[in-house]
Structures are given as structure tokens and as C-alpha cells.
Specification:
94 residues, alpha+beta, Trna Endonuclease, Chain: A, domain 1, 4-stranded mixed sheet, 4 strands, 34% helix
């Protein structure tokens, strides 16, 4: 089973190789916003997506579901479990 940190590294490498800028979000302390997806990704075409990374067996927490529903009012939000899945997601942005 692939660790989420390994998945994140592979996804970041793929995105950066394909000219996307990737920002990592991590809620670690007081005043942070819980439930924000792991990565915020920007293309040179001025498109952006939020990616929540999960292992194939992973599930979103309740707070993540609520935040993702709210964010979908403003941008696309995806749960991504593999680079292959990312490739399919990015086809929408070419």
C-alpha cells in the first residue's frame, strides 16, 4: 500500500513536469482552516484546482467533506489516489 507522502511526491513531480505550480496546504495550528485540500495547483492557463490526496483505502473526514463542498462553489476539488487518476483529471484542463 502506497503512503500518502509518496503519492504526494509523485503527484507534485508530475504536475511540475507539466507546468503546474503546486502549493502544499497544511493545517497545523491555531487559526488554521481545517479541511482545506492538500494541494492547490495552478496552471499557466490561469486555471486552478484543489487536490485532496488519499491512499486507495483512505476516506475523507467530515470536516473535509464540508470544506470541499464549500470550495466547490468557487473551484474544482478532487480526491486523487494515483498519478493515473491525476492524468484523467488534468484532461479537463487542456
Amino acid at each position: 500500500m502506497r503512503k500518502e507522502s509518496s503519492l504526494q511526491k509523485s503527484i507534485r513531480e508530475y504536475l511540475e513536469l507539466h507546468d503546474w505550480m503546486v502549493l502544499k496546504y497544511s493545517a497545523t495550528g491555531a487559526g488554521e482552516t481545517p479541511g482545506i485540500p492538500d494541494l492547490i495547483c495552478f496552471s499557466k492557463k490561469k486555471q486552478y484546482v484543489f487536490l485532496e490526496l488519499k491512499r486507495a483505502s483512505g476516506r475523507k473526514q467530515v470536516i473535509q467533506n464540508a470544506m470541499h463542498a464549500h470550495l466547490k462553489l468557487f473551484a474544482d476539488v478532487y480526491v486523487c489516489t494515483s498519478v493515473d487518476e491525476l492524468v484523467e483529471i488534468l484532461k479537463k484542463y487542456n
